[in-house]
Design a protein that fits this description.
Elements (H helix, E strand, L loop, with lengths): L2 H6 L28 H12 L4 H8 L3 H9 L9 H11 L3 H8 L18 H9 L10 H6 L2 H15 L15
Helix pairs in contact: 3-4, 5-6
Length: 178
């Protein structure tokens, strides 16, 4: 087909239900939600066991459609009930608390007493930055302050484990109330 033949063809534009009006920009597709860590682990374990999603849903005590929504990240696992999280922990052979953490129902900062996780700047940063070994690996104070509570807690917990020191007051053992 020659260029003159192409020019003589009618131009077809679509409007309304068939497509956007000429000259309009298409909206960028939104990023697909990501599944929680718990759902990623459940999907991997189901695959290792050669279980179908329907079999996994049955084990968790939920419907197949709800499972697919959880696996796709369309439903929030942080709101799952205890019975489902217990079943998930059983399926993965992990402690129930781990399932709560992976689901996002508990955060690592929930295990630190009295807001110390939110205050992970002052004394803890100073102690770690002055340490003979860790000091050289510490971020600047500005970088430290820009980290999430979770990231700061991870660094503090790694420092405590490596050095045998305690910088945070943990709430692992409940206090006796008289």
């Amino acid at each position: 087909m020659t260029d003159s033949m192409k020019d003589s063809l009618p131009t077809i534009t679509t409007r309304g239900r068939r497509g956007p009006k000429p000259g309009t920009k298409r909206a960028k597709p939104e990023a697909a939600p990501e599944p929680s860590q718990l759902m990623s682990y459940l999907a991997a374990e189901a695959q290792n066991r050669n279980h179908t999603p329907a079999e996994l849903a049955k084990h968790l005590g939920i419907g197949y459609v709800y499972l697919t929504q959880l696996l796709s990240g369309k439903k929030d696992t942080a709101r799952l009930g205890r019975d489902i999280l217990v079943a998930a922990a059983d399926y993965l052979d992990v402690p129930i608390a781990e399932a709560y953490l992976w689901a996002g129902a508990l955060l690592p900062t929930d295990f630190v007493h009295g807001g110390h996780a939110r205050e992970m700047s002052g004394e803890q940063f100073d102690v770690m930055s002055r340490h003979s070994y860790w000091g050289g690996f510490m971020p600047t104070r500005k970088e430290w302050d820009s980290l999430s509570d979770r990231a700061r807690l991870l660094v503090v917990m790694a420092f405590e484990q490596a050095t045998g020191t305690t910088l945070t007051e943990k709430t692992m053992v409940p206090k006796q109330i008289e």
